[in-house]
Amino acid sequence: MVEPIYQVRGATKVYAMGEVSVTALAGVDLEVAAGECLVILGPSGSGKSTLLHLLGGMDRPTGGRVLFRDRDLSGASDEELTSFRRDHVGFVFQFYNLVPSLTALENVEMATEIAVAPRDPREMLRLVGLEHRADHFPSQLSGGEQQRVAIARAVAKGPDVLLCDEPTGALDYPTGKIVLTVLREVNRTLGTTLVLITHNAAIGAMGDAVVRMRSGRIVERSVNTDPASPEQVEW
After folding, report:
1. Letter string b/e over residues 185-218, b meaning 16 or more CB atoms within 10 A of that residue's CB
2. How far apart are CA 189 and CA 122, in angstroms?
């Protein structure tokens, strides 16, 4: 049995909107195995982004517990969560958030400056197939290339976990498949645990495990014994 890297126990998240309380998570239980590719599916408002924020230490649950290995993130201080994000988690978002005045290589190098065990930035660009674009600025790159630079930047600091929030949401179909292929390659080559949230149900076919969410709850978890390659995913 592979040890879980995350254990979520009865996690709730309630936001106060003036005099109204909005429940984003309503008692979530989840385990994520180290090294697996987990796809979290759900429509807008299902709670999947809120869950990702808890896993990434960007927010704390209102109730319940979120454990990273033996580390309880639920009651961690702001300083402890900052340290956790820096040392253990890489983030890939729908929008690339590259620094426009830096080259692709410099954008990747920037992440290694705060890392405890960084990886070689040029090797990470090579991993995502962009070593030949190292000296180009974001404005000289396509959307898909910018997203691949963002992935290289996220993995260059040597994280245990890569958390991806709709990483293909701003991309066309062919480019999205390239990005999914790169993410799966990072997962398999480096052994980085990959958690990917999306509203696109077809992407679930590439996950080792798939979680479906609705109304702040996990309504189904399934295991793919023979996950599809990203090239086989069609939507």
Report:
1. ebbeebebbbbbbbeeeebbbbbbbbbbbeebbb
2. 16
The pLDDT tens digits for 164-220 are 999 998 899 999 999 999 999 999 999 999 999 999 999 999 999 999 999 999 999
Q: Which residue shows structure tokens 């674009």? A: 133
Domains, the chain, in order of start with CATH, read: 35-57+88-232 (3.40.50.300)
pLDDT at 1 over 70: no
Amino acid at 131: E
Q: How big, in percent rounded to 5, are the helix, strand and coil portions of the chain? A: 35, 30, 35
* Alpha-carbon gap, residue 66 to 37, rounded angstroms: 19
**How far is 25 from 216, CA to CA, in rounded Å?**
4
DSSP 49-100: HHHHHHHTTSS--SEEEEEETTEE-TT--HHHHHHHHHHHEEEE-SS----T
User: Which tokens hold the place of 158?
Assistant: 């040597």
In sequence order, the 6+-apart residues with CB closer than 8 A to the CB of 107 are: 98, 99, 138, 149, 153
Q: Give the pLDDT confidence of 32-63 residue by residue, as tens digits.
A: 999 999 999 999 999 999 999 999 999 999 99
Both structure tokens of 49: 């982004």
User: How many whole angstroms separate alpha carbon 119 and alpha carbon 99?
Assistant: 20
